[in-house]
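Researcher: Before we compare anything, I want clean individual predictions. No alignment, no superposition, just each chain on its own. First chain goes here; please echo the sequence and then give the structure tokens.
Model: Echoing the first chain and its structure:
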Amino acid sequence: MNGPTSDWFRATRSRHEGRIRAGGVDRDVAFVDVDGAINDRVDAAYRAKYGRYSANTTRRITSPEAASTTMRLLPR
């Protein structure tokens, strides 16, 4: 939601790897760029999940700026 200027995103661009924690699981991952085609599916999922919030919130999550930060996380 904070786009390509956020600290976390800039760190992924410089390191291309990191560690994530989700659902009680820790994993080392590689951050890989994706093509724009997946953004429509990601945006649809966000709209389905967050559509009950204000239109402004949904627009921020699905903006071109936010889409520019979409990446795939691959286990290392």
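Researcher: Okay. Second chain, same rules.
Model: Second chain and its structure:
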Amino acid sequence: MRQSQIPPWKKPSPNGKKKSQPLSEAQKDAARQRAEENGRRYPNLVDNMWAAKLPRGS
């Protein structure tokens, strides 16, 4: 996958028709675990974006 030069927090919002959905409990747990493994108290934007790519049930 190609790495973007622009960080996600500086990119404009996509204008697609797809509405965002809140993370499922499993996705939230995965983001929390990833943050904890990296020494953070709570998940940041990158952790949440990573978790959003996971299947909703896992």
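Researcher: What stands out in the second chain?
Model: Residues 22-58 form one domain. Additionally, The CA atoms of residues 33 and 39 lie 10 Å apart.
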